[in-house]
Amino acid sequence: MPALNPVELIVQKRDGGRHTPAQIAELIRAFLAGKVADYQLSAWLMACFFRGLDREETVALTESMQRSGTTLRLAGVRQPKVDKHSTGGVGDKISLCVAPLVAACGVAVPMIAGRGLGHTGGTLDKLEAIPGYRVELDARQFERVLRRVGVSIIGQSAELAPADRRLYALRDVTGTVDCVPLIVASILSKKLAAGLDALVLDVKVGRGAFMKDLASAKALARMLVDVGTSAGLRMVALLTDMHAPIGRTIGNALETREAIEVLRGGGPPDTRDLTLALGTEMLLLAGRRSAKAARAELEAALESGRALERFRRMVAAHGGDPRVADDDSVLPRARVRRPVLAAESGVVAAIDALELGLCAVALGAGRTRADQAVDPGAGIELEAVVGQVVQRGQPLAVLHAANAERAQAALARVAGAFTVRRRAPAAKRLVIERIRGF
Amino acid sequence: MPALNPVELIVQKRDGGRHTPAQIAELIRAFLAGKVADYQLSAWLMACFFRGLDREETVALTESMQRSGTTLRLAGVRQPKVDKHSTGGVGDKISLCVAPLVAACGVAVPMIAGRGLGHTGGTLDKLEAIPGYRVELDARQFERVLRRVGVSIIGQSAELAPADRRLYALRDVTGTVDCVPLIVASILSKKLAAGLDALVLDVKVGRGAFMKDLASAKALARMLVDVGTSAGLRMVALLTDMHAPIGRTIGNALETREAIEVLRGGGPPDTRDLTLALGTEMLLLAGRRSAKAARAELEAALESGRALERFRRMVAAHGGDPRVADDDSVLPRARVRRPVLAAESGVVAAIDALELGLCAVALGAGRTRADQAVDPGAGIELEAVVGQVVQRGQPLAVLHAANAERAQAALARVAGAFTVRRRAPAAKRLVIERIRGF
Fold first, then answer.
1. pLDDT digits (tens, 9 = 90+) for B229-248
2. Model ipTM?
3. Cβ contact A173:B39 at 8 Å
4. pTM across the whole model
5. Could B39 and A7 be called an inter-chain contact, meaning their C-beta atoms sit closer than 8 Å?
6. Residue of chain B whose alpha carbon sits nearest to that of A13
């Protein structure tokens, strides 16, 4: 291959041209080798923001990023390996529910999860609310837990897709995060490096999601599914509603508690429904013949306690306290609890997920910079959900905080996130659309 | 002023927003102070490529770049200070003619010139063909020559608009050179730092120019004039034809010789005409009432020998051999001369300036990288110009080169740059349009 001229590549993309897969592979290789400077890659990223990358280019970028590190083989894991990934929401604890549930049905779930940033929460932070749970396993430990328990949820290790970390760090400081093909390559490169057979995507749409409108969420889902399928993954995406928070809790220990309720066969209806909907897709990608049979299998695993047992074993395998499955008091609690009362009677017509996500961060449950610590006990518990009748003076939510000042500061804003009307709102579908691979 | 968030500024421009002058000033300041990284500025530059900068933003950028270094005051120079700047062409030796000519009419010409790069030549390289001529004077020496002689042509010093050098170096390696507002700010920041009162622009359009079509040349000229005027310069731009080379020579010593012919009152008609057209504009900006009177004044300065005398004194003041004004043999000559013969009889319908510019570089007259040395004697002498009748076997051009191999290698390509037809082409206007400040 002739020596890469990075300026030519930048100008080609700037002027609306298409790169060959070899050009993209060489660009990423040269960038990691220090032969293409940060300032050249950032100019290229900005050109990509304006000109886009087509499917073939995005597949090449994804695979180049995947190959920048090791790809897990997980040779000792015999079952089909299926993961679920969400584009991020508020109160989204589905990973904690669905991963052990699907594992209880005989499918391996090697899940590499992330941390919360901005208004959205992160699965790793929720797991770390469990005393002792270690999210950092090396590849051998990860495989051993998967072989023994069938499910393991860990953080991204330095060996998997290091190009993604380099690129993301650059995008974060150059205004090039909001670019669909770059988002797609970032998500899928890590998933491919984890050695998956199949992946179910939960693409969230609405106020509390990264994609605010249906058209852009659909475009992202379509590209994720197309690129992932081209790269050899079996894929399905569900577009799901993210206007109101999921379930009744926002905050790490609070959400872990709710996830355990679902694994016990209970929990809020929407959290349970979304768990079953995504779990059904995971089982279908693992080879189950019908959605109806898959759903029945999942419901049986919940009712029988096998899902909860799988969760208990996963926590223990990660060094966490397994009593958490049976006893909520193992989880950390915030010192201060403060109710937010309804100022008027009526029906809850809307709850602004974005606002509540930001309030949870302000209470200490999240972070505004990647290097901040979180308060595991902090967060918001909803006492009223959309469609529910409330009387004036009745609690809409309970704030959990480390001290009274923090709770006090969030009070008015949390109250303002609730819209109370005379009439009940039209019911919203949780799953808006299903997008399959070609 | 609150601390600058470079990512917010990048995203603002990326999304089509406008910056305030204060934001732009702070961005440039922070970049020079190392508080905004190269990779952030390059992303911003690429966003500017797509979204543009409006007049107010470009004025702010220009002034920020100007203020990054010292601005010459030239307090000892009493006359109006007027410069001429060309966007770059092939065979363009007008600066060498017009600067001493206008100085001979009592206008100070403090000219900061550049070097050749790619297919276009540079005034400094042409002056350095004169034995002893020093283009590097410090600010005090520059002012002294201006005070005594009325004209001085020097290279850009490190103190003038250092931000421009930093920015240009970054643009050069990030595919962000071809962006009108960035070009405008680069040109004008240096001119403003030189302490001018007025500036005449020669914006070239055609094959041999940076701008290939009239519309883009006009847009560049319009923005240059508008931004310069806003920044306090009196300005006029001429759009001039750059399909064929100017005059009969391409190459440093060859062009200096032709410039001296013009200063003696001779020279090729187009070189003389362009000199008079641009000189007229300079005198008008210096306060002359009519173009007709200005032109007569210039012609008189040529005929009387005062323009040549001014050139002689400028050369001497710069350490150059003043005999060059009277004796061409002072200039270096290439060892090898090789004619290019017409393959058929007819009329020269076109001469491709871009091709001849590139051939001159190949002969040693120019450079493809900024750090290369040039061969002062190398170049191309035209024996036939557009509209001229030629017979088969008659010379179209003479190549000047250091050795026979170089001449031989350029032979076919130079011949190919001439289009010979049966019929004479339609005459082209040299000055296409005149653009004034508001």
1. 999 999 999 999 999 999 99
2. 0.86
3. yes
4. 0.88
5. no
6. B175
